[in-house]
Amino acid sequence: MRVVAAMSGGVDSAVAAALAVEAGHDVTGVHLALSPDRQQLRSGSRGCCSVEDSHDARRVADELGIPFYVWDLADRFREDVVEDFVAEYAAGRTPNPCLRCNEKIKFSAVLDRARALGFDAVVTGHHARLVDGELRRSVDAAKDQSYVLGVLTPQQLAHAVFPLGEMTKDRVRELAAERGYAVATKPDSHDICFIPDGDTRGFLTRRLGEQPGPVVDAATGATVGTHAGVHGFTVGQRRGLGVTAGDQRPRFVLGIEPVSRTVTIGTAEQAEVSEVVTAAPTWTGPVPELPFRGQVQVRAHGAAVPCEVTPADGGGLRITLGERQRGVAPGQSAVLYAPDALRGDRVLGQAAVSATA
User: Fold this and answer.
1) 11 is annotated as contributing to ligand binding
2) Is 125 annotated as a binding residue?
3) Residues carrying an active site annotation
4) CATH code assigned at 74
C-alpha cells in the first residue's frame, strides 16, 4: 500500500513509520504543523508540534529513507480543535481535544488529503488495534488510546493503520533504541498540546475574560463563595474550588450553569450518577440493535463499567450504568465497548454526554 505516516516527532509515530516500511509499504512521512507559533509549543513533556518535534520526525524519516513533508494545518486545527475547546468550556461543558483532533484533523483533514493524493491509508502511532476492521483496545492497557479513537467511522477505520496495538510502550521504546533513534527516550507528551504550560484555567481566562458568579453548595443550599468564570471548572472537579464547606467534607463540582454563571458543588455521594443521556451516537461498525448490554467508558483515563443502552429522545442514547460513576461531565464522550463475553475490548461507538442523573 501507499501510506502516509503521521510523524509527530515522538517515539510512537517513529516506530509506527518504521514498522510500516518494514512491512513493505510505500511510506511517505508527514509532520503536522498545527500551531502558527511552533517555537512556543514544547516544554519538556508538555506540548507538541514544535520545531524540535519537526526536526526529530525528519531525522527518523531520513534514517528510514522515506520522503518527508510538513503539512500546515494550523488554521484547521485552530477552528476545529482550539476554538471548539474554548466554546465548549464557555457553554459549561468539558470537551476532549484529543478526540476532536482525531476526528477533525488526523482522520478527516489528513486522511482526506492523503486519499486525494493517491494514498491508501494513514499510519499513526496510536495504541489501539484493528482486527478484521474492528477497532479494539491496545494490549497495553496503561497506554490504550481506543477511547479517543471511538469517534472514527467505518470508512475512516478502513483507511487507518495502527502498528503498535499489539505491543507495550516499553517494547516500542526498545524497538526505537534497537534502531538507534534519538527519540527512544523522548518523554511522552502530556496535557493539552496547545496549552504547553498546563494552565487550562489561565488559558481560558485569557480567551474568555473573567466572568464572576456564585458557588452554591447543594448540600446546604448556601452560597459559599464566588468564582472568576465557569470556564475554570469541570463536573467532578475537587481541587481548586476556592471554598471551604462548613462540615469540612470534600466537595465536588456537580453542575455548571453558564447563563447565571453558577457553579454548584456537593458531596462525593451527590457527585455520583447512575445514568447518562447522550446526543446522537456515531458507530465504528454496524449500528447495534437497541437495547443492548455492553460496557461504557466516560473519561479518557477512566475504567469501563457494565451498562445497558436504550434509545433516548432526539436520537440520543440513555446509558444505565452498572456501577455509579463520579465526575461524568456534559461534553465528554461516552465510548461504548462490547460486553466481556463478546470481546469486551471491541469499540462499538461513542456519543457526547448531554445530561446525567
Assistant:
1) yes
2) yes
3) 101, 193
4) 3.40.50.620
pLDDT in tens, 298-341: 998 889 999 999 999 999 999 999 999 998 999 999 999 999 77
What are the pLDDT digits (tens) for 247-306?
A: 888 999 999 999 999 999 999 999 999 999 999 999 999 999 999 999 999 998 889 999
Query: From CA 54, how far away is CA 32, in angstroms rounded?
Result: 8
Q: Is 12 annotated as a binding residue?
A: yes
The residue out of 168, 185, 202 marking a domain boundary is 185
When pLDDT is averaged across residues 63-69 and rounded to a whole number, the result is 98
Q: Is the pTM of this model over 0.85?
A: yes
Q: Taking a C-beta distance cutoff of 8 angstroms, is the pair 309, 317 a contact? A: yes
Q: Identify whether residues 222 and 321 lie together within a single domain.
A: no
Distance CA 43, CA 341 (A): 44
- What pLDDT is stored for residue 242 in this prediction? 84
Domain that holds residue 169: 2-185
The whole-angstrom separation of Cα 213 and Cα 225 is 9
Residue 195 lies in a domain: no
What letter represents residue 311's amino acid? P
- Judge whether 315 is annotated as a binding position: no
Q: What is the helix (H) or strand (E) element at residue 5, kind and residue range?
A: strand 2-6
Q: Quick one: 25 and 129 in the same domain?
A: yes
In this structure, the answer to whether residues 166 and 217 fall within a common structural domain is no
Closest CA to 214 of 199, 201, 200, 233: 233
Measured over the CA atoms of residue 253, residue 255, residue 256 and residue 259, the dihedral's sign is: negative
